[in-house]
Amino acid sequence: MTSIDDLFKKPALPSHKRKLEPTRDPNEIYKSAKLSANGHVKSDGKQPAVEEDDDIEAGPSAPPEDDEEDYGPDIPDDEEGRFFGGGITKNESEILDYMDGQESAEIVPEKIDSAWLRKMALNFEKKITKNAELRAKFENDPQKFMGSEADLDADIKALSILSEHPELYGEFAKLGCVGSLVGLLAHENTDIAIDAVEIISELTDEDVEAEQEQWNGIVDAMIEADLLDLLISNFGRFNESNDSDRSGVYHALSVLENLASRVSLAEKIGQETSILNWLLNRIPKKESPVSQNKQYSAEVMAILLQSSPLNRRKLCELDGADLLLQILATYRKRDPMKGTEEEEFVENVFDALTCCVDEPEGKQKFVEAEGVELCLIMVKEGKMSKSRALRLLDHALGGQTGAEVCEKLVDAAGLKVVFGMFMKKIDGQTVEHLLGIFSSLLRLLPANQAGRIRTLAKFVEKDYEKINKLVKLRRDYATRIAAVDAEIRKEQARMSAEEREETADEWLSRRLDVGLFCLQTIDVILAWLVAEDEGAEKKIRALLAERDEGLEVLRETLQEQLDTLVGGEEEGDGDGDGDGDGDGEEKMMRDMLGTLVQFLT
């Protein structure tokens, strides 16, 4: 007996179902046919071209042009056009033209409003009910319910037009259709489930011009209808060797990306479903070339990790950091081809791992899996991976729990690598990450230990060349910031106190864009050197004096940072305990800055 899968996945006629095209842009692929306002499927308007060839001659030769030849009596003119026309008289033609005009005038574009939605919802529910009844009644005879399944398939696709009318989202949810649509994810026919996934992806897409309240309304209804569990369960039954199922995986990942735009949902997805396990199994699969779904899986993982510390910790518990390092190890000396899915895949894996090492558990796993050694190889020998490996090291060494990573960097001969790169011609992003690494080493390496002594030695060797470059960079950043500060002061003079407060974030952003963070980090590094090495202090004083400056410029920068942290403490630390202590990292920063300011006084 013919199975239902055979009936739907192997039609006798050519299938018109859109398929995911791995070589195309994700935003252009596998979209349901949108209906225009008049209810017709949108078309690109292309028509087949007919080429005329005037040079081809066919048929008998034309008679000679000789007026004296006798060819019989002349044929009278066909005034009614019966021979060369359509076989109708002029009056009949006018009547038909009039009737055609009347029919065209009667076609009115369908209005998409509440009345239309209620009608559509009723038909949609009827199609679902009818299909369910026929499936139950003729379970072993797919021919009997195949027609109802095709009707349901068409109705699901027709819901695509709702993405153009988000004002109807709330009523769509109230009518119960959201729950019915989500319920179709459990349909026995995976093609029906895939259609439902695609529509859910379209309705929740960021490109939909929906107000936040409208988006929240339909998403909340979907979550209440058990969207997450039903969606994740489909990853287990989709077979990516099949075109249709492969597109289903793509759109299911798209739904997760859409939902993760709300931080609370991103955390819920990571904590209450098995998606991280599935992603960790999907990402390492060997493919050549790397498929769109493999790349998208890595991207969704990075998004979920960026949104939630709990998700990052869970991934570490699943040994995800080790697995991601194993993937990156294949690119330590080889770059993926530019502009390919593979290149984006590698970037997403770096992003995911960078998120992991921001957590204490991630730092520990990073050291255990020899992540420091791998990054140093990439910094020395990599091309595309060089800057990303440096950023990964910067994050791994940072934070109050980065001491172990700092010690590992020193033990792995990493000082030579990072200080050597610093003395080369490098871009601004590389400078920022190197400064972050230097700052972490000085902040976290234990006093009087070999690692700290070796780090200080790197700053003073070769006639203080690193300090020379640090001060030169400081001058460049200070000049840029001074120019922006002058512009800001002019703007402030024309504003009220309320307007200044509203514009404060914008001004800070402009200062950061021209290097405020790098200037602050440089001054922290210089302050540490002043505090710990007399020779370095003399060199720094001499270099600053060349511009009639002294240690007070460093103190001012550090005091500004300290005031910002203290101000945030007074406003509340956000941890909910009312003690204003902030997290451990902020307290550590305040203590460090306060101590360094005293050394510069």
UniProtKB/TrEMBL annotation:
Annotated TM spans: none
Entry keyword annotation includes Repeat: yes
GO CC list: spliceosomal complex
Keyword match Coiled coil: yes
Composition-biased stretches (Acidic residues): 64-80, 568-584
Location of the Beta-catenin-like protein 1 N-terminal domain: 91-197
Keywords (A to Z) from UniProt: Coiled coil, Nucleus, Phosphoprotein, Repeat
Disordered: annotated span: 1-86, 564-587
InterPro entries per record: ARM-like, ARM-type_fold, CTNNBL1, CTNNBL1_N
Subcellular location: Nucleus
A Pfam short name: CTNNBL
Name of the protein in its database record: 640caae3-3f79-40ef-ab37-5332ff6d38aa
Organism of derivation: Sclerotinia trifoliorum
